[in-house]
Design brief:
Layout (H helix, E strand, L loop, with lengths): L2 H9 L19 E9 L3 E9 L5 E8 L10 E7 L5 E5 L7 E7 L5 E7 L2 E7 L5 E6 L10 E7 L5 E7 L10 E7 L6 E8 L1 E9 L2 E8 L2 E7 L5 E6 L11 E4 L5 E4 L11 E4 L5 E5 L7 E5 L5 E5 L5 E5 L5 E6 L12 E3 L5 E7 L8 E7 L5 E8 L8 E6 L5 E8 L5 E10 L6 E3 L13 E6 L8 E6 L6 E14 L7 E10 L7 E2 L6 E4 L19 E11 L3 E12 L2
Antiparallel strand pairs: 1-32, 2-3, 3-4, 4-5, 6-7, 7-8, 8-9, 10-11, 11-12, 12-13, 14-15, 15-16, 16-17, 18-19, 19-20, 20-21, 22-23, 23-24, 24-25, 26-27, 27-28, 28-29, 30-31, 31-32, 33-41, 34-35, 35-39, 36-37, 36-38, 36-40, 40-41
Length: 571
Amino acid sequence: MNIACLSAALAALVTLAPLSKAAPVAAAQSEATWIAQHRTTGRASLRALELHPAGGAVVALTWGTTVGSTEDVDDIEVRWISEDGDWLWRALPPTLPGMFLDLAVDGAGNVAVATEALGQVWISCLDTTGSLRWTVEAPSVAAGASFRLRALGFAAAGEVLVTGIQDAFNTPPFDGRASVLALDLTTGQTQWRVDRPAIYDAIATIAGGEAFVVYTGFPGLLLDRIGGGGQLVYSAPVPNATRILQGDGIAADGAGRAALSLRSSFYTTGPNVLTFDANGGLAWSNTLQLDFGGTVTFTTSGDVVVCDRAYRRDVWRMDGVGAVLWQRSAPSNVNIYGYGPLAATPSDGVVLASADTLSSQNAGVGLVQAIDAAGTTSWVETLPGLAWDSSRFTSLAVDSRGNVWAGLSRLDGSGQPFEGAAAKIVAGGDPSTAYCAPSVANSTGASGALRAAGSVVAAHDNVTLLMGSLPEGAPVLVLNSRAAGSVPGAGGSQGTLCLGGAIGRYVGVGQVRRANAAGLAWLQLELSNTPTPTGARAVLAGETWNFQAWHRDANPGPTSNFTNAISVLFQ
């Protein structure tokens, strides 16, 4: 689109009521580009977050009333959040008042949700639009014991996988079971189930469409790998340990390997970090001080990282034979309680979520830390006032672009959750150079600001534009061009269009943004699908692209304005 046509198009968009003022955006090494918050009249909490295959994440929110010190809830809501923080759909699985347990998303965008009501576990399945397919009970087969969920996921053949423990140790004839069920995706009917004799508790994970379950069987502590059709791939003894405790961790790499991190206790008399190969053989073991348990994950290169859940605040990385490559403690300038969720990054590092309790227990600062493969802290991002205990960071995930998604809850003065939040963090600095700055002041009295966060490498396809100091509620249209320009008053605007030549407009679904109450807006660019007047095309290495945002305003009558412009030389 040429400048004359663009000016006419922008002039036709100017209709707006008076708007309020907002604050500018500040730059950072890593960027929490947005925080989507959810608050109700009852206790609100974000309990789980899982990445969606089409981008964004699916979250489970709960709210209700406090019952003693329990986490009983009245309502459970599932939402799909876009990469720009928008709610794409929402669903309320039909459950009795009860407790949220787990959430899983398959490769097509189907969602499984597990809840507990009146002592029973219920599994609900939502299709790709968020509509309910079915709800069924996960029945117990152990006399005198209810089914307790331990992991939820999807099998390689598409079934919903449910793992749990039925502890009947105190009920003769001691017929507890560690169980794996496969439920048909369309009907919810049980396709197969595996029930292994067990006592005490269990931990489980699902990876690569298979279930991995650790439980006290006969004899001793066992690790089972359950494959397609309920096939028992292996049942491996876990040496030097007799039972599972709260805080123990398990991970699988999707290729059959599993790793365990067990609490230091009299139930574990030897090495407490162990890995098993795809055939169930003990690959290596090591001993770490994990008084309150640890979270464990595999890195992309196959190393194992373990972080301490409480007090010690340590992180270890071990290689393929169990040798410690490095041990790191929490950053010295923060005072965290312990680490919570842990996730691997595409660059062979890890990200960890914790909580900063420097000020006071209930006024802590949520903390996300990235550590690279060599053990160097790449960045630390704080999310002020949104968490004080690492257990309140319910989820952490890294998407295909390398962006970090965190699910967490904010607590009130009594330590009860009252607000759930999801945050997207873009690693890296600002790859852009600003020009035409400052822009002409808008009705807030400030100049609309534009900058970028992400990677300068075109192949990474990871640039987010961040706009600030905008009028609250103002629609925002992002523009691009290969050339700079200067057209004061373009389209009757009070600002200056700083782009020249052919100008592309981001007018696709969800791309026209709206400034929030803080005057902020953002847009995740799809560099492989960049709009131009002659059609979409990919951004290539060596090209320079310019960006600018136009927005409506009321200053004092209906008008419009522009932010500053930026240029990015892609590599």
